[in-house]
Amino acid sequence: MNDLLTGSAPEQTYDASSIEVLEGLEPVRKRPGMYIGGTDERAMHHLVAEVLDNSMDEAVAGHASRIEVELISDNSVTIRDNGRGIPVDPHPKFPDKSALEVILCTLHAGGKFSGKAYQTSGGLHGVGISVVNALSDQLRVEVARNRELFAQEFSRGHPQGPVEMVGAAPNRRGTSVTFRADSEIFGSHKFKPARLMKMVRSKAYLFSGVEIRWKSAIDDGETPTEATFHFPGGLADYLKESLGNAATYADAPFAGKVSFQEKFGKPGSVEWAINWTPSRDGFIGSYCNTVPTSEGGTHEAGFWAAILKGIRAYGELVGNRKAAQINRDDLIAGGCALVSCFITEPEFVGQTKDRLATVEAGKLIEGAVRDHFDNWLASDTKSAGAILDYLVLRAEERLRRRSEKETARKTATKKLRLPGKLVDCSATNREGTELFIVEGDSAGGSAKMARDRKNQALLPLRGKILNVLGAASAKMGQNAEINDLCQALGVGMGTRFNLEDLRYDKIIIMTDADVDGAHIASLLMTFFFTQMRPMIDAGHLYLACPPLFRLTQGARRVYCLDEAEKAAMLERGLGGKGKIDVSRFKGLGEMDAKDLKDTTMNPETRKLIRVTISEDMPGETADLVERLMGKKPELRFQYIQQNAQFVEELDV
Ligand SMILES: Nc1ncnc2c1ncn2[C@@H]1O[C@H](COP(=O)(O)OP(=O)(O)OP(=O)(O)O)[C@@H](O)[C@H]1O
Ligand SMILES: [Mg+2]
Ligand SMILES: [Mg+2]
User: Fold this and answer.
1) Where is ATP annotated to bind (predicted)?
2) CATH no. for residue 333?
3) Greater model confidence, 547 or 228
4) Is 81 in the pocket of ligand 1 (CB under 6 A)?
5) In a domain, 557, yes or no
6) Which is the catalytic residue, given 262, 281, 514, 592?
7) Catalytic, out of 57, 101, 439, 595
8) DSSP of 226-243
9) Are 412 and 395 a contacting pair, CB within 8 Å?
10) Looking at the structure, do residues 356 and 440 belong to the same domain, yes or no?
């Protein structure tokens, strides 16, 4: 009891003398997390963002047109702009210090509090560059103003001397900051060229009035060591680049830019671009005054509100009552969006500015985007229709999934809306079950007799499956073969794919051992790769290996997978007497049930190939898909053969 009253530790040391006041930049070094969100790699890269943001503010304010970012060695970076230059004259409040020194060495010193020197700035706390200074073991600022060059150096937040005029600068203006992140704070973390260049490039997309030059002394083998970024096309181009070759529902994104001044008589603006795609998860990149807000905020909320209300209203207009069911999740799941706003006096959550809190921004953006969206939907009815259909489908699927969950009894074998031509197996448990996707009906006939009805199911596919990515993406949902396939598998496509719903353990593609068969197999693999990738990753996709030849000698029967095997077998002989009969199967349909069972379907005797995706596939996914879907089908298949590492697996 006593313990509770007095506490267990001695208390005599806790008096006024134990209350410390941290001076100058000390608090930053003591608690970096409060200012840059930690001391990890991400936090360290944020130092560059702070300095770059200041140059961007200078550019957005119309005073700088060029910024250079140079990674000069492991942990030093230079950021240079041709703006007005940080003031170097003595500060009125501290006559013995220059404004430069006050800015670098004092928290909450800056020119962005009043809106006089900057209108819509990313900076607002007057903290950024002083934090960078505190956390650098070396920092040098050069300012070129009025044809003179000034410089001052710092270490861990302390000036190493006063600001000095170091020479004439007849052709130069602006600020240059070179700093080295302090290893006392950041340990062994190093600046990554790729990460920095990505940051730099996105800034250029966000403000087309600036040209940013990138240079790196470190070559990571992938990131260019020199590049110049200038993107007059703004966010529409940025989105295009982010989406690569992914198929999209709208031919051109819904993109635009609105000045709040013109529309509402208030300073600021918003720019956006959005499209929907079936082939990848949606994303949103949002920015305020060029600062990336990874946790979103009021501007994102306003944007989605405009899109949601717009699409519902359009649905009502065209008499699609189901549009009312669409919610924000449906929009976001396949929606790829970029939103960038410029506003005065933004309010961010925290110094790393991950979330925007300015309430008014949401209203302005919703109002600005909404009008444009209504017009766009009305003018591009083809895209509008495709997007609406897609979103309605998503909403229905979501509702269906929910009601399924509600009616509980969640087994992997629920038989909802199974396609008529599916020959299902009788097992009620997914474990050990197999679905053979077979080419054509005739093959289906012998396969039906050859299968083990307990755990082997069949789905005959008629004709060639649509070349999904080649065709307009909206067609994919309308393709009957693909719908049957999805229903049989029990899963949705793209972002709607859910591995848990898969109704079979092994999905086995069984096509003829000829060129056509190879083509169909390659189309199917491409489809699974782009739409149901987790299924491949989890090792559920297989290729059957039907033989090409049957050799008979009396009662002896031997099957050979290919020419080479046949030749070897003929040379060795079957061990019987008399002539060896060679028959070549033109297709699965030519095999009788016994042939098919022994060679291709019976787990005791067959051979299966598991399809896996090799880790070191070159390039980005989009690039890969493009190559898979190149014009020549034979080449596509070759590519898969070479790169979809075939792990042979003789399963017993
Ligand atoms: N490249 C630059 N060109 C001109 N002035 C600059 C530049 N960098 C910094 N400044 C001046 O220094 C001030 C302080 O910068 P600092 O980054 O510390 O704070 P801030 O940008 O005002 O706010 P925040 O803490 O949100 O970044 C700025 O407000 C600006 O007046
Ligand atoms: Mg700043
Ligand atoms: Mg400061």
Assistant:
1) 14, 54, 81, 123-129, 353
2) 3.30.230.10
3) 228
4) yes
5) no
6) 514
7) 439
8) EEEE--TTHHHHHHHHHH
9) no
10) no
Q: Which ligand is nearest to the CA of 55?
A: 1
Residues 215 and 113 in one domain: yes
**C-beta of residue 248 within 8 angstroms of C-beta of residue 275:** yes
Which of 83-92, 413-422, 459-468, 567-576 has maximum average pLDDT? 83-92
Active site residue 514: yes
CA-83 nearest atom, ligand 1: 3
Terminal-residue alpha carbon distance, the chain: 69
- CATH code: domain of residue 175: 3.30.565.10
DSSP 597: I
Nearest C-alpha to atom 31 of ligand 1 is from which residue?
111
Whether residues 50 and 94 fall in one domain: yes
Q: Does 193 lie in the same domain as 54?
A: yes
Q: Is 389 noted as a catalytic residue in this protein?
A: no
Model confidence pLDDT, tens digit, residues 464-520: 665 554 454 556 666 777 888 888 998 888 878 889 889 999 999 988 777 677 777
Q: pLDDT digit string (tens) for 190-220? A: 999 999 999 999 999 999 999 999 999 999 9
Ligand 1: centre distance to CA 123 (Å): 6
ipTM exceeding 0.90, yes/no:
yes
Q: Cα of 274 to ligand 2 centre, how many Å?
A: 29
Is 16 in a helix, a strand, or coil?
helix
Which of 196, 229, 262 terminates a domain? The answer is 229
The closest of 445, 528, 520, 535 to 485, measured between CA atoms, is 528
Give the separation between CA 87 and CA 90, rounded to whole angstroms. Answer: 9
Q: Exposure pattern of 174-200 as b/e (b: 16+ CB <10 Å)?
A: bbbbbbbbbeebbeebebbbebbbebb
Q: Are residues 251 and 202 in the same domain?
A: no
**Residue 220 sits in the same domain as residue 319:** no
One domain, residues 272 and 149: no
Kindly report the CATH number assigned to the domain that includes residue 537.
3.40.50.670
Looking at the structure of the chain, the number of domains it has is: 4
Which among 298-302, 415-419, 622-626 has the top mean pLDDT? Answer: 298-302
Of 498, 507, 512, 483, which Cα lies nearest the Cα of 421?
483
Tokens matching residue 453 = 């009805």
451 found inside a domain: yes
Q: Which domain holds residue 126?
A: 26-229
Q: Which of 376, 402, 428 is the last residue of a domain?
A: 402
pTM confidence score:
0.64
> Which amino acid type is present at position 5?
L
CA 12 vs. chain centroid, Å, equals 56
Give 467 or 617, the one with higher predicted confidence: 467
Buried b (16+ CB within 10 A) or exposed e, 247-284: bbbbeebbbbbbebeeeeeeebbbbbbbbbbbbbebeb
Element (H, E) at 129: helix 128-134
Residue 253 in any domain: the answer is yes
Report how far residue 496's alpha carbon sits from residue 329's, in angstroms, rounded to the nearest whole number. 12
Residue 397 shares a structural domain with residue 488: no
HEC readout, 434-454: EEEEEECHHHHHHHHHHCCCC
- The pair of three-digit structure tokens given for residue 571, joined into one six-digit string: 């040379």
